[in-house]
């Protein structure tokens, strides 16, 4: 049975999710706040040693209420904790007011701050941002903006509760206010959509999702177009070979890649495919690349193009279950002709990357010939060539979803939070991977992985999702061994076996 992907909801829907939980669990709003803040406090005690001092910046809403609960719980652990009240004399939300009173009544130190220069944090303290929550709908200016800018200038470690103050939950195109630059963000139940955009990385830092057990009924019934991947959901979609499977039943992958100028792209894509379960792999290359494939990937069959230097076409596709094309392909006129021949002849499963995408971007007729359900794997610049420039990452996400629906394709937009857009308008964000993977050749490995998954029987969405998750996880394993700076694209391919072992073991256990 397939596990559901975890939904990402818009910040405008959060109040309804909370209220449904309060009414149907049932639980009081104060106790729900206590539950969330208790989980957050447990994480703080894991991340930071008992010798740390905690300075909490509190506003006037429920995010500040979370902050007061955290302060009280830290105090109860005999940790030095101070709350800087940035809204003295202002009306607080009901739950915030109750938890402020509880903190002060239990001996908590609460310092009222009316000017930014009066905010004087303890040296080397951990600053906890509880100023604004996810309900913020306007840029932060004035006094509170000054406080946020002061926080950003300090060397202290900063932790944001649920969302960095000043960051809007989705679209920040017109947000010219101050935004907290957190080192860590502990967010409740699901990441906010804004966390998925590279341009906001400097604000959210490392993100950890805390499951505060909102009512499963509302999470199940409420529709969303946005999801994030979990190991459980990905593993449940990975097809397991049957007992009597053989190379003829596990799929024949055709990989079209490489030129004499870029033979390594074909090698890396082939290594990704070989490590991803295809029964047979045929690599179609120009004649002058043949020997390198034989030497570097001895498990692969080699099919030689009629051209010595570039791709010009494939003559027989009768035994192929999936085609991958693009890594190191080049964009010559001969290759464009070969691409046209291929798209006229092939209507099956397909993954298109790199130079093959550039050929599509340069020729609208070629794009119209791509089979429905094909998987495209552009990086942002390649996607810009296909769909035009975007104002920011949120605008790009909308373009991505529109493009996938218009052309009935699955589009994997590669990046720090790779997102898969499906023709039905849904978007799936990957949470694995690290900056060490931002190296030449990493995308070639992904092409090989997805092509192999398609050939071995996975539907396009599952192949894209599983492939992206496994690719990122393999990169994480490589970074753990070699450090992010030391990761090579080939290391990602080499670590894939360990990823599949983990996912398969999960399936066996279930």
From TrEMBL:
What species does this protein belong to?
Butyricimonas hominis
The YjeF N-terminal domain extends over: 14-220
- Signal sequence annotation: none
Query: What is the stated purpose of this protein?
Result: Catalyzes the dehydration of the S-form of NAD(P)HX at the expense of ADP, which is converted to AMP. Together with NAD(P)HX epimerase, which catalyzes the epimerization of the S- and R-forms, the enzyme allows the repair of both epimers of NAD(P)HX, a damaged form of NAD(P)H that is a result of enzymatic or heat-dependent hydration.
What is this protein's name? Answer: Bifunctional NAD(P)H-hydrate repair enzyme
Its subunit composition reads: Homotetramer.
* Entries under InterPro entries matching the protein: Carbohydrate_kinase_pred_CS, CARKD, Nnr, Ribokinase-like, YjeF_N_dom, YjeF_N_dom_sf
What does the similarity note say?
A: In the N-terminal section; belongs to the NnrE/AIBP family. Belongs to the NnrE/AIBP family.
Could you tell me the gene encoding this protein?
nnrE
Question: Where, by residue number, does AMP bind?
Answer: 414-418, 443
- Which positions does UniProt annotate for K(+) binding? 63, 129, 165
Q: Which UniProt keywords apply?
A: ATP-binding, Isomerase, Lyase, Metal-binding, Multifunctional enzyme, NAD, NADP, Nucleotide-binding, Potassium
Where, in this chain's numbering, is (6S)-NADPHX bound? Answer: 133-139, 162, 265, 328, 379, 444
